[in-house]
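A protein record pairs a chain with a discrete description of its three-dimensional fold. The shape at a given residue is found from the number at the same position. Here is what such a record looks like in full:
>
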Amino acid sequence: MDLDAINERIAEVHRGKKWILTPDAAASASSLAAQLHEWGAGPVMIVAAIEGVGDLPEVERIHYTRTTGDTVMAGIRAFIEAIENPSRALLTAVEAFDPEDEAMILPTGFSRESRLLGRPLYGGRPAAWGALEDKMLIDELADVAGITRAPSEIVAVADAPEAAERLAGELGTVWVADNTEGWHGGGEYVRWVRDAGDVQPAVDWFAEHAERVRVMPFLEGIPCSIHGFNTPDGTAVFLPVEMIIFRHAEQPEFIYARAANFWSPPDTIQDEMRRAADRLGALLRDRVGYLGGYGIDGVATAEGFRPTELNPRLSVGHFIQFGAADLNPGTLERLVIAGDLDLAADDLEEAVVSAADTTRGGGMLITIPDDHEAAKTGVVFTESGAIGVDPAEPNDAVMEIGPGAYRSIVILRFDPERNPIGPIMAPKVLRAIDLARDLWGITVPPLVAAPDPF
């Protein structure tokens, strides 16, 4: 794979053009904004909900919508609404930046529109691809692709208790909502129904938010995902990623805390996961002409990998692994969709897998229902805990806290050179959360990591 030629093609496409970026947090676009300037693009404007945690990008203009929500999904949806149906203040800011109407939008993975802020999206995604977000689709897709899955039933909310009785294992069942209220993620529309006492609260909650639910047995094992990337000539498949998902120690809830790829599953599990991603990628390309990144979430159980949902978009697992190869998956995806880059799937797979196999990464991102000023610490892990150190000193990870779209967020980034490849990282994340409680007084419920069955 000729990285120099690819980077020159990327620069050529972006050079000399105005761009508007639409991240929900401005700080998250710092790297892309810097790349745009390196490629000779500009000027650059950012439209964001909030500043976010970390250094702000150096661009010509930033406009904040100041949209928030009571949950993470509510905050994301409020921001999408703000850019899909812009206020006069936002349109005025955009017109002042781009009076000649020359700019193009670099889209996020959230909006499904073909135009935003009165301007075209570069490398936008067709509506048929966004429709794949429906959590009710994974079973049919897995069956057609020949992927082994756990039993499940898709039923009306009122019929979920009976389905749960049929499907429950020792640890109960897991219910997930359809897309009545739109696409969703981060586990917000998922409930763990452990026993009879959890049934009615789950029915009451889903009755307000969904028409149907997918019910399946609770799967004991490591939450994980596998990622692929479709190009016109085939499918690139990457390495397994550990999803940092905790169980609430006292309530039937899951806490999504991002992902890391230091974990190395047994070869049989890895092979099964990669075959699943390859087969599903081919099916998506055949059905809807799907291009770009996608991921399959699931659980690595003692019996094998069992898929639980499809994410038809780039996710954190792509960015962890592509970053190891000094590639930006968002940039590559947009160029591939726009037909501006001839990228071979086999070459992409070899470049990313070889780099990600030696340089691991990832960390934690959690939201907390408190207001906190920005702060930062280095983290050194011990056998039973974690200690805070000056971020400039040698450390195993860096942890930051600050305002988010929903109150505050805590971010942890592991140092690839100071954390071993092999074990799961969730126990270290729990130690970091304990440290954040001590340092910053964050409000996080008691959490439990999934046990490693291997």
